[in-house]
């Protein structure tokens, strides 16, 4: 599977660049806004999908969010390559990492447009959650691992 952890400084630069390009730049958020305080925590797992040519086309991360619970955040796929199964592979990699840590459920806050993607992969909407940048409605979703 072409999904793996980022290792090199170049990997991490491409990882955060894609996160910024897909999840922050369209809302005119400043560079750096794509980073989270716990990105460098030892318990945070990062995943990237690299093409055969080495292009980083998908990213996502996972962190423990409660007893036996993990949370997925910052899922993003290159807009030119969405709908080709990349997001699915990144998510499955993160879920497997959670299982290996003994987590039994996974939660996330999905953007409204991404809800069908997560439903396709076994998640269910629990409740509406926050409104990001004043416009992007999110929904709390969960799945038994
Ligand atoms: C949401 C996102 C990560 C999904 O990644 P992707 O590579 O485009 O999705 P995949 O191709 O792996 O899709 C997996 C399945 O979900 C389905 N799916 C994906 N997006 C969908 C949508 N918007 N509506 C309905 N089904 C969808 C696909 O058809 C596919 O189903 P299949 O296995 O039957 O073919 C990606 O589109 C993205 O980065 N979107 C913009 C940023 C975003 O919203 N990120 C999530 C923040 S919570």
UniProtKB/TrEMBL annotation:
The UniProt keyword set, sorted, is:
Acyltransferase, Transferase
Q: Which residues form a coiled coil?
A: none
Question: Does Transferase count among this protein's keywords?
Answer: yes
Q: N-acetyltransferase domain: which residues?
A: 1-145
Q: Does the keyword Metal-binding apply?
A: no
The family database entries (InterPro entries) matched by this protein are listed as: Acyl_CoA_acyltransferase, Bact_Acetyltransf, GNAT_dom
* Full protein name: GNAT family N-acetyltransferase
Q: What organism is recorded for this protein? A: Hymenobacter cellulosivorans
The organism that produces this protein has a lineage beginning with:
Bacteria, Pseudomonadati, Bacteroidota, Cytophagia, Cytophagales
């Amino acid at each position: 599977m072409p999904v793996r952890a980022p290792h090199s400084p170049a990997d991490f630069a491409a990882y955060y660049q894609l996160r910024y390009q897909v999840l922050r730049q369209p809302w005119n958020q400043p560079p750096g806004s794509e980073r989270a305080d716990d990105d460098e925590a030892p318990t945070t797992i990062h995943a990237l999908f690299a093409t055969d040519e080495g292009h980083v086309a998908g990213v996502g991360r996972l962190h423990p969010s409660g007893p036996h619970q993990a949370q997925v955040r910052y899922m993003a796929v290159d807009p030119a390559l969405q709908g080709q199964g990349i997001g699915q592979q990144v998510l499955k990699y993160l879920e497997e990492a959670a299982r290996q840590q003994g987590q039994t459920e996974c939660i996330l806050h999905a953007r409204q447009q991404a809800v069908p993607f997560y439903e396709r992969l076994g998640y269910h909407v629990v409740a509406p959650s926050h409104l990001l940048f004043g416009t992007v409605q999110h929904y709390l979703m969960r799945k038994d691992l």
